Here is the input.
Amino acid sequence: MRFALAVHGGAGAWRLGVDGKLIEKTIEGALLRGSEAMRSGSCVDAVVEAIAFLEDSGILNAGTGSTLDYLGNVSMDAGIMAGGKAGAVAIVSYPKNPIRLARIVMERTPHVLLAGPQADELARRVGLERHPGPSERALARWRALRELPESEWVRARVEAAKALGYDTVGAAALGPDGCLAAGASTGGVSLKLPGRIGDSPIPGAGFYANEAVAVSATGIGETIILSMSSLRVANAYLQLGDLAEALRRVVAEHTARWGPNTLGLIAVSRRGEVGGEHNAEGMPWGYMKEGEIRVFGLPG
Ligand code: ASP
Here is the structure.
């Protein structure tokens, strides 16, 4: 069976004393879960199950491990695209797995993006599992950040987010029938203002899939929205016909415009190419294709 699946655990500075081995195991677990889902389902199942696995890990900034907003609340974004359709949710706190709600928006509503309490209400109505609330890790991170004086916090928030790492999650898949799907899920950048929406629920920015390529992005959401980074990869791939070259070009242009520690990308193509590229200190990611599994951990 010909398929390819790539997942990532976020681009960033990774200075928080994270357990690199545990992150590698988590990436591998997501690949196994996603490929198992693909075997009995589709490229969409692969992306949703791989991302749900990462959301449930509690050690990454998505689902139960989500970073908190400035007021200490969970506020998550997620999105998925496949077969010319997309579904996304923003500023949600009810679902344990926002990626499952994004899929429901894509498959069961006429809309692309739902936000806030009404999106949470949909999660409740369709019976999605409830988020358990902020994790100990997220609360500890939030308490440390709240020690910054407010004036400094507002000025420094993008720099602080870069320094802290952002460990959002994402996946891109090619199914044996040629279907391509991409998705992303996040608690957002550390220190975000309540109500802030990042790139992860924006098609073309945090994720994108067409009939040639599927892409998922991570990094500073504001820069990714302004660059439409995932769509840019699809366009570069169309032009260059080489996935690795397309990813390198998009990251290089992004770095020239926005500086380092701003972007990470993974992608799979219809031809079965798989790639990952970033300008951060680290981006744990991995892929599985034709029985081969590879995991790229954190530096050092
Ligand atoms: N892109 C995400 C956001 O800005 C953060 C991340 O990639 O970790 O919300």
